[in-house]
Amino acid sequence: MWLLLLLPFVGLLWVPFYNFMEPSLFGFPFFYWYQLAWVPITSLLIWLVYRGRKPDEA
């Protein structure tokens, strides 16, 4: 489960993957909305890792 936390790190660390203007979403270039999309995705992943841990790991 802890490996899920690497997804946002890798997804945002490799800038050439998302350094584009198109496709735009609501007038925002891909570069911006891709990064903003990771905010709720990262929150969900953190919640999943939290819920997946054992009670004695607190």
Strand content: under 5%
Overall pLDDT confidence? 89
- Tally the structural domains: 1
- Structural class of the secondary elements? mainly alpha
Spatial separation of the terminal alpha carbons: 16 Å
Tally of DSSP β-strands: 0
Let me know the largest β-sheet. none
Number of helical segments?
2
**Rg from alpha-carbon coordinates:** 15 Å
Topology overview:
Blueprint: H1 6-13, H2 30-52
Short note summarizing the structure:
By secondary structure, the chain is mainly alpha-helical. The protein has helices at 6-13, 30-52. The mean pLDDT is 89.
Can you give a write-up of this model?
- The protein has 58 residues and is mostly helical.
- The protein has one domain (2-57).
- It is built from two helices and no strands.
- It has helices at residues 6-13, 30-52.
- Helix 1 (6-13) runs antiparallel to helix 2 (30-52).
- The longest helix is centred in the last third of the chain and has 23 residues, at 30-52.
- The protein is elongated and about 45 Å long.
- The relative contact order is 0.18.
